[in-house]
Design brief:
By secondary structure, the protein is α/β, with parallel strands linked by helices. Helices cover 48% and strands 9% of the residues. The chain is globular, with a radius of gyration of 25 Å. Bound molecules: guanosine-5'-triphosphate (GTP) and magnesium ion.
C-alpha cells in the first residue's frame, strides 16, 4: 500500500516518546457485529472513503466480506483533495474493475451522480419492490451527509425533516438507522456507525486518519497533530504556493483600511466628537490593547497562518529531508504561529494545543490547500526511482 508519507516524517518526534495510542473505542466492536449480521439482507453496500486518503480510509478488516457483495466505493470530500490527482486516482481504481465514484456530499450535482451509480449497482434487481442499501466506512468520512443528500433528492420539504445526524467530530452515528431515498421501487439506506480496524498497522496511518478527522484529536493530541501537519505542509513545500495570495490579501486589507479612513475623514464632526476622537486616539497610543485574533475573521487568521509559515520556511536554511532540521523548523513555526495568533504565554502548554487546533481547523476546511495524503502507488514508485 502507498504510504505517501515523506521519509523525513517517519522518524520525527511525534513518533516516539509517548504511551501507545488506543485508536479503537469500544462501541466499534458492537457496530462491526451489527454490520456483519445485517449484511446478508443487503442488496448493495456503499463503502464510503475519504478522497484525501483513498487507501488509508479503507477499513481493511471489512474488505474481505464487502468484496463478496455488490459494492460501490464512494470517495467523498472530493472538494478537499488535490483536484489534479482525482482523474489519476479514478483510473487507478477503475483499473481494478470495481465501481467507484468521487463525490462531494454537499453538492447536489455530485449526489445525483452518486444516485446514478447506485442505480447501476442495482441493475437487474430494480424490479424488486424493496431494495436495501447499507452505507459503511470509517468515522467522519461523510456517510450520514451522503445519506441526507440522497434523501433530500427525492423528498418534499416536510419529509426532508427526517435527517441523519451529521457532525464535525468522529463517532456521531452510534446506531444503525434506516432512511427511504426512493419510491417504486422502495429503496432504503441504512446508516451505520463509523468503524476503524482494532489495530492500526502503523503510526503514519493513524496520523493520517487523525488529520482527516477519523480519530478524535484528543487521542493523538492537538499539538502533536499540529506538528505533524506542519511537517507535512513543509515537506510538500506548500507555503511557497501561497506567496501571491498573501500579497493580494495584504493589498486588499490596505485598500479597505484607506477607504475606511477616507470615509471617516469626510464625515462632518461636532466639536464634542472631535474632542472624544482625540481623547481615544491618545488613550490608544499610551495603552495599546492587543488586537484579538478570533475565528470570526477567518480570512485574517488564514492570512496570519500562511504568512507565518511562508516567512519561516523562506528563512529556513536547513535540509527539509533531515528530520532534526525539520523538527527545528516546525518548532520555530509553532512559536511564530503562537505569536501571530496572540495566544497568551500565560496559557502555558495549553497554548500549544490551541495552535494545533487552529491549524487543524483550517486544514480540514481546505484553507491550507487541498492535498491527497496518500500517494498513488505509481507515483510512490517514481519517488523511489528519483531519490
Ligand atoms: N468539505 C466536505 N465536508 C463534508 C463532506 N461530507 C461530509 N462532510 C463533513 O464531514 C463531517 C462528518 O460528516 P458525517 O456525515 O457526520 O460523517 P459520518 O461518516 O457519518 O461520521 P460518523 O457518524 O461519526 O461515522 C461533517 O462536518 C460534514 O459536514 C464533503 O463532501 N465535503
Ligand atoms: Mg454518521
Amino acid at each position: 500500500m502507498a504510504s505517501g508519507v515523506p521519509k523525513v516524517l517517519m522518524k520525527m518526534a511525534f513518533k516516539t516518546g509517548t504511551a501507545p495510542i488506543n485508536w479503537f473505542p469500544g462501541h466499534m466492536a458492537t457496530a462491526t457485529r451489527a454490520i456483519r449480521e445485517r449484511l446478508r439482507l443487503i442488496d448493495l453496500v456503499v463503502e464510503v472513503r475519504d478522497s484525501r486518503i483513498p487507501y488509508t480510509s479503507a477499513n481493511e478488516d471489512f474488505q474481505d466480506f464487502l468484496s463478496r457483495k455488490r459494492r460501490l466505493i464512494v470517495f467523498n470530500k472530493s472538494d478537499l483533495t488535490n483536484p489534479n490527482l482525482v482523474p489519476k486516482w479514478k483510473d487507478h481504481f477503475e483499473a481494478k474493475g470495481e465501481p467507484i465514484v468521487f463525490v462531494n456530499a454537499h453538492c447536489k450535482e455530485s449526489i445525483k451522480l452518486l444516485f446514478k451509480e447506485i442505480r447501476k449497482g442495482l441493475q437487474n434487481i430494480m424490479d424488486r419492490p424493496t431494495l436495501l442499501i447499507m452505507v459503511v466506512g470509517i468515522p467522519n468520512v461523510g456517510k450520514s451527509a451522503i445519506i441526507n443528500g440522497l434523501h433530500a433528492l427525492s423528498h418534499t420539504e416536510y419529509e426532508k425533516l427526517k435527517k441523519a445526524a451529521v457532525g464535525s467530530l468522529p463517532g456521531v452515528t452510534l446506531n444503525l438507522q434506516g432512511f427511504k431515498i426512493h419510491s417504486k421501487p422502495s429503496i432504503f439506506v441504512l446508516d451505520t456507525p463509523g468503524v476503524l480496524v482494532p489495530n492500526i498497522r502503523d503510526l503514519d496511518m493513524g496520523l493520517k486518519l487523525a488529520l482527516t478527522g477519523a480519530i478524535k484529536d484528543s487521542v493523538v493530541g492537538e499539538e502533536r497533530l499540529g506538528r505533524y501537519l506542519l511537517a507535512f505542509l513543509n515537506s510538500r513545500k506548500a507555503p511557497f504556493k501561497w506567496q501571491k495570495s498573501i500579497e493580494a490579501a495584504r493589498a486588499r486589507e490596505r485598500e479597505e483600511k484607506e477607504k475606511k479612513e477616507q470615509v471617516e475623514k469626510a464625515k462632518p464632526k461636532t466639536l464634542l466628537e472631535l474632542k472624544k476622537q482625540a481623547y481615544l486616539a491618545e488613550k490608544r497610543a499610551n495603552n495599546p490593547k492587543p488586537e484579538r485574533v478570533s475565528d470570526h475573521n477567518k480570512d485574517h487568521v488564514v492570512l496570519l497562518v500562511r504568512e507565518a509559515l511562508l516567512n519561516t520556511l523562506s528563512n529556513f536554511d536547513g535540509d527539509l529531508e533531515d528530520e532534526k532540521d525539520m523538527e527545528a523548523l516546525v518548532d520555530i513555526q509553532m512559536h511564530e504561529l503562537r505569536r501571530a495568533l496572540k495566544i497568551s504565554i500565560e496559557l502555558g502548554d495549553k497554548g500549544w494545543e490551541f495552535v494545533g487546533k487552529k491549524l487543524l481547523n483550517l486544514f480540514r476546511v481546505g484553507r491550507l490547500g487541498n492535498f491527497a495524503l496518500d500517494v498513488l502507488p505509481e507515483d510512490a514508485q517514481n519517488q523511489i526511482q528519483c531519490t
